[in-house]
Amino acid sequence: MKENSEELQKKMGTNETxxxxxxxxxxxxxxxxxxxxxxxxxxxxxxxxxxLEKMSHFDREEVPERVVHARGSGAFGYxxxxxxxxxxxxxxxxxxKVFSGAGKQTPLMVRFSTxxxxxxxxxxxxxxxxxxxxxxxxxxxxxxxxxxxxIFFIRDAMKFxxxxxxxxxxxxxxxxxxxxxxxxxxxxxxxxHMITFLFSPxxxxxxxxxxxxxxxxxxxxxNEKGEAVLVKYHWEPKQGIRNLTxxxxxxIQAKNVGHATQxxxxxxxxxxxxxxxxxxxxxxxxxxxxxxxxxxxxxKLWPQDKFPFLPVGKMVLNRNPENFHxxxxxxxxxxxxxxxxxxxxxxxxxxxxxxxxxxxxxxxxGSNYLKLPVNAPKxxxxxxxQRGAMDYDRPGENGSNPSINYEPSMIGGFQEASKEGxxxxxxxxxxxxxxxxxxxxxxxxxxxxxYRSFDDWERDELINNLGDALSVCDPRIQExxxxxxxxxxxxxxxxxxxxxxxxxxAMKESDAEPKLYGKPAANKVAQGASSKGHEADPx
Length: 539
Known about the structure:
Elements (H helix, E strand, L loop, with lengths): L4 H7 L37 H10 L13 E10 L2 E2 L2 E2 L15 E10 L14 E9 L2 E8 L12 H8 L10 H9 L5 H7 L14 E2 L4 E4 L5 E10 L8 H8 L5 H11 L5 E10 L25 E10 L4 H6 L12 E3 L3 H17 L80 H9 L2 H15 L4 H14 L1 H21 L29
Antiparallel strand pairs: 1-4, 1-11, 2-3, 4-5, 5-6, 7-9, 8-9, 8-12, 9-10, 10-11
């Protein structure tokens, strides 16, 4: 029988308790205040083992910061499936077990984040928010990695590194400069729809609890027959949607740069568990020539009148992390983490993200990042992938021959799963390999529709924020951006120009320094924005 540590210590003649400080070898530390030195004044000796171990670990206790989504928070809870897609059985569309059986609960964790800022940037920044969900399903992990806004800036992953470089601080000065972002966007007209949302009140969610989530990319569902449909995912907060005007965000930032993390933690601590309902939009798996956009284009919304939101389940967050670093900072997500019944579409951004996300985690945390408790699936893992830093598998612990670390083999080791039963979804392609944009870009149509769908005060806020940011840009960038906005809606372009020119004139007359990015113009705070924040939904 295994003896507990205190009984073992009594036998060994020690007087340690649960509160006794030890080093990482389990040795009790009797002096944690003073280095060993020759005399009380030094010099220090080389065999200062406790000091050297303590300091060298301290020097390495931070993992590399994420390039994007560096600032984040998270919590744990469960997903409860309705067992239906709207009024139809879920099995009609997908064989994924996570959605089968009404009332079934699957444990999960969620990480919310900002995108472009550093690990300690303010949570009031005008920036998309990450909304990443890891479900520990019976078939292994499923990661649904998305953002709060339902669209994105670009539709091809080739542009992603350039986009992020342009949106981050100037590499020479390390100062934020909107000219860099608009310089990139002015040559990327597909971004105008996202810019319209970002510079409206939707660009600053009030808290993580009061924001939407979206898979952004187009995925597929596959049923028992191997038939596939295109699908988009949407998380809608049951607490309601709340966003901030720039003035409200500035007031919060003056007092608290981590207000969203604090709000989420305190809500769960007091038992006010946030909930989101998961909706899907479903479309047949073909090109849909009747639409004026490509359904795989993640700069576009699928119109709800044609593809309605269908409820499939809900998420409840009811536990805070006990160790933020190990459970949230080391949490690792990837768009390629799918289970049977879920599949990839040919969305170009999805393909790029699927490589990039997992590769980032191997760099940040190490080749064995999936063995950390927060990332490990809650089921048996049997793989011949081996070694690397921090590998702690015991050969043969999953029932295989410990000498056979390869496949195929006739004398032991793991075997491929049976191909009998469920047919895979195998799309057919008959086209040349090319480097080319999609055919139906329609860069301005939905941007104009979104602008016209806003309330008057939302449009005022959008125009004011854009006027502020563009007023410090190169005139060539200003003209290009105004042309894009005009293409989306004539009133949109006209109002941005007028607001921008007012700001430029005021700066010249006052001989003022250019405004910092994101600061509201004097006396131009949008009318009609309540102190409770923005609570509408143009989607």
